[in-house]
Amino acid sequence: MNRLFLPLFLVFCPSIFLNAQHTGRATPRLIVGITVDQMRYDFLYKYESSYGEGGFKRLLKEGFSCENTHFNYVPTYTGPGHAAIYTGTTPSVNGIIANEWWDSDTKKERYVTSDVRYSTVGGTIGKVGQHSPAVLLSSTITDELRMSNSFRSKVVGVCLKDRGSILPAGHIPNAAYWFDDVSGNWITSTYYPDSTQLPQWVQDFNAKKRPELYLSAKWDKLAGKDYSQSFADWKHHEDGKYFNHFQGEMPYDLQAIRQKIGNVSVIRFTPFGNSLTLDFALDAIQNMEMGKDEWTDFLCLSFSSTDYIGHQFGVHAEETQDAYLRLDRDIERLLKFLDEQFGKDQVLVFLTADHGAAETPEHLAELRMPTGVFDESKLEEKLEKAIELNFGSPGNYIHNINNQQIWLNWDAIAGFDMNPVDVADVISQTLRSMPGVYDVFSRDELEHLPFEYPFAPELRRGIHPRRSGEILYQLDPAWHADDKYFKEGGTTHGSSYPYDTHVPLLWYGGNIKPGVSFEPVSITDIAPTLSAMLRIMEPNGSTGKIIQALFR
Fold it and tell me: Which stretches of 476-536 are assigned E, i.e. beta strand?
């Protein structure tokens, strides 16, 4: 390069010079990715008047809010949500099509992270620890961070739910921890390195028996807080079927419930499950010395109790509001901890959700709004009878129905010399005659729908060619296929509609300028945006885009 041109080049292109001099210290010492399970976008503002100044309000005031963030696929469940956030892609690529699905190889239903090759470490012997991320088909931002610097960055996943810890932490983390109801311990799996036993700091944490301490108090509303944002007459819309040990109204005697059920699982259904999760996460940061050197570390922190509480009580319950008011305090506690340990300029925090939540059908019906619950658990029997009626041969033609997908038994269909297209037509016609069904598609039909067909792109992005069912159906707005728990109260999720797809996305830290944007953002944009901030490769299956508004 011409010597005279070089100084001018550096003056007018300072960012290129800085990137060339980029070091680990120029990036955050610690990234904290917060996923709030079942947090609808409107919860940021619905309870705003009751939030303190140091939690959600601080993130909104000092951070950057992407107000128009949606999931760009269906189904909207916990496993796919966490996977999409961290892989930067949809189930069509990362393979996480649901929390459970029919496995055509093993000919049985599988749970997303279940892996019998590995054993429980630190908890009850059995399935509770038999998990790994092996089912995840693409890398995560956490994997790419570790590989970018010869594994010097530390990555840890923490969540009450196994899938909420395992999927974000990726394939090659230092550790992933989740909660065992029976032992009351934070546990892990032998999949992870050096996990023949729990580290001493985890053993010490478990020895404190914090779940029992939290459950020794009653769950009551916070003194001095206004709960008028919740519906005062909501009690008859709360669903006792999901966790049928809450009787009456707050305060709830948690110790009595714990003694009745014989374990500490009730903590999941209280705000104290989130507090326990944060307690453990802060211990992880300190004991694993995260953020203490020049290499960026990453804590994947997921709060699950909001999901359990939402399923049980519904989106308008005082219990749900109380969960968010207490979570607001936990977030304030986290931000203060980060201030003390690192300073705001040395951290990067993002907060989002793995899905939203629906209105309770019974409540909508009382308001004379169209709604309903689709009896998916009874659907297989109805479709088998329809096939028998049309072809004259009784048989087991359907392997499984789940997540509004149908897996056909090709061997049975071939054995009776049936045309698969004709069988699919019978299923489609039968489904279309049922209340609440918007439309039905074979996978081939879905691939050929025009892009502008309502929700066709989202449905396609939710299908993996080797894992998804052969037939899919979509329900009308405010209808849900969750009759097991959802007929009379509580809430659920999983659809392509905004109540399930519209979630918060907040960014906070030293390099984040305060602001707000209403430009469309997809949940899959988070991982490539983090990659751009860190100057590393995006996850290998990423289909998301960098959120430009953050860099303006």
Answer: 479-480, 502-503, 506-509, 515-517, 521-522
Q: How many domains does the chain have?
A: 2
Q: What is the pLDDT of residues 316-362, one digit of tens each?
A: 999 999 999 999 999 999 999 999 999 999 999 999 999 999 999 98
Length of the chain: 552
Per DSSP, helices labelled H in 227-378 are: 254-261, 272-287, 305-313, 318-341, 361-366
Q: Which helix (H) or strand (E) holds 432?
A: helix 420-432
CA 510 to CA 506: how far, in whole Å? 14
Supply the CATH number for residue 400's domain. Answer: 3.30.1360.150
Residues 486, 365: Cα–Cα separation, whole Å = 13
Q: How confident is the model at residue 201 (pLDDT cuts 50, 70, 90)?
A: very high
Q: How far apart are CA 106 and CA 103, in angstroms?
A: 6
Residue 495 lies in a domain: no
The token duo for 59 is 């993130």
Q: 469 with 442, same domain?
A: yes
Dig out the tokens for 390 from the structure.
Answer: 């049309």
Residue 254: CA count within 13 A, CB half-sphere: 21
Give the other-Cβ count within 10 Å of 75's Cβ.
Answer: 28
Reported confidence tier of residue 232, pLDDT bands at 50, 70, 90: confident
CA distance 477 to 26: 47
Residue 239 and residue 357: Cα distance in Å, rounded?
Answer: 14
By the 8 A CB rule, do 95 and 467 touch? yes
Tokens of 463: 């299908």
In order of 100, 195, 437, 446, 458, the CA distances from 405 in angstroms are 11, 37, 13, 13, 14
- The secondary structure element, H or E, covering residue 110 is strand 108-111
Q: In sequence order, what DSSP letters do the residues of 252-273 get, joined into one string?
A: EEHHHHHHHHTSSGGGGGSTHH
Residue 455: phi and psi, rounded to 5, are: 70, 10
Tens digits of residue pLDDT in 280-296: 999 999 999 999 999 99
- Confirm if 119 and 129 have CB atoms less than 8 A apart: yes
Range of the domain at 420: 375-434+437-475
Residue 262 lies in a domain: yes
Q: Please check whether residue 299 lies inside any domain of the structure.
A: yes
What whole-number distance in Å separates Cα of residue 477 and Cα of residue 372? 9
- Residue 370 domain-assigned (yes or no): no
- 8-state DSSP, 409: -
Known catalytic residues are 78
Q: Which residues are registered as beta bridge partners of 175?
A: 156
